[in-house]
Design a protein that fits this description.
By secondary structure, the chain is an alpha+beta fold. Helix content is 57%, strand content 14%. The radius of gyration is 35 Å and the shape is rod-shaped.
């Protein structure tokens, strides 16, 4: 547990709710909150590592916010969960990282060292979460553009799996930004009056960034849908070409089948006594094939 008081870090293992302090705990240190069961329960309720939810709850005398970062943003974020219990006297933060690195603690230390308030230090963590998200979304857009080029060139083999994979990657991010927008909007209402005008202005700036990220993700989702439709169109075109080929073959051989059936009847026909009776069906067959191919070529069926 890391504790800040009067703009500096102090050494203590006690959580005192009547002092102006900022407490930073790792999720593994929740046992320190056994004496504060209400706080512990709210934090545990907000901790959903397999989800991408974010929420802000305002109660009489305290606020509670929780952020669960989706795995799709893992490469750009060192911590996966962040929760804050905010009162007029103290703030208690709980976090879990993707890797065993005290990244969140260092961010708070740097902010406190610059003289920012405890509440703005908490808000800055939301800003840090979003810092490199545009890079992630830009990489996804490049991947979609590459898939679009492959589809437009007719190289559609196994691309549907890549398209589906990108779609599954985008949807959790979309839900994450939706929940984050709702959370910051609720925070901006400041029902308990814990945040100053300067801090609320900072929260509004963060909200603007989240909104831009949300619109970008929405556009990427539409982009993936367009590529999937283009892929389906290419598949349909390929299927139509195959069906056209089979239609041409059927149209050529159908008269020949009729001719073979005609002369295959167990009846005595006059042609059988004719000198050139054998050459007649051969010539007739060749004429039918030639005539059919000429007609199909004029109609541009192949």
């Amino acid at each position: 547990m890391i504790v800040f008081e009067n703009g500096g870090e102090i050494k203590t293992k006690n959580i005192q709710t009547d002092k102006n302090r900022l407490y930073v705990l790792h999720i593994s240190e929740l046992s320190l909150l056994d004496g504060l069961p209400d706080i512990k329960t709210k934090i545990m309720d907000g901790f959903e590592p397999d989800d991408c939810t974010s929420k802000y709850e305002c109660y009489d005398g305290h606020d509670m916010l929780c952020i669960n970062i989706p795995e799709e943003l893992k490469d750009m974020n060192s911590f996966r969960f962040f929760g804050a219990y905010i009162t007029a006297e103290f703030i208690l933060c709980v976090y879990e990282e993707w890797e065993e690195l005290p990244y969140l603690v260092e961010i708070i230390r740097a902010g406190i060292g610059k003289g920012i308030s405890f509440k703005k230090a908490v808000l800055s963590l939301i800003d840090v979460i979003l810092r490199d998200d545009f890079t992630v979304l830009g990489n996804i857009e490049d991947m979609i553009a590459d898939l679009e080029d492959c589809v437009s060139k007719g190289d559609v083999e196994l691309k549907i799996w890549e398209i589906s994979s990108l779609r599954r990657k985008i949807l959790p991010m979309k839900r994450f930004y939706e929940h984050l927008i709702d959370m910051v909007e609720d925070l901006d209402e400041n029902e308990n009056g814990f945040f100053t005008d300067t801090e609320l202005k900072y929260a509004s700036r963060i909200l603007g960034r989240i909104d831009r990220l949300y619109r970008t993700v929405t556009n990427l989702r539409d982009y993936v849908t367009q590529v999937r439709e283009a892929y389906q169109a290419q598949m349909d075109i390929g299927l139509n070409r195959i069906m056209k080929t089979f239609t041409v073959i059927t149209a050529v051989f159908l008269p020949l089948t009729l001719l073979a059936g005609w002369y295959g009847m167990n009846l005595k026909m006059p042609e059988f006594e004719w000198r050139f009776g054998y050459l007649l069906p051969i010539g007739l067959s060749l004429s039918i094939v030639t005539f059919s191919l000429i007609i199909f070529k004029k109609k541009k069926w192949f």
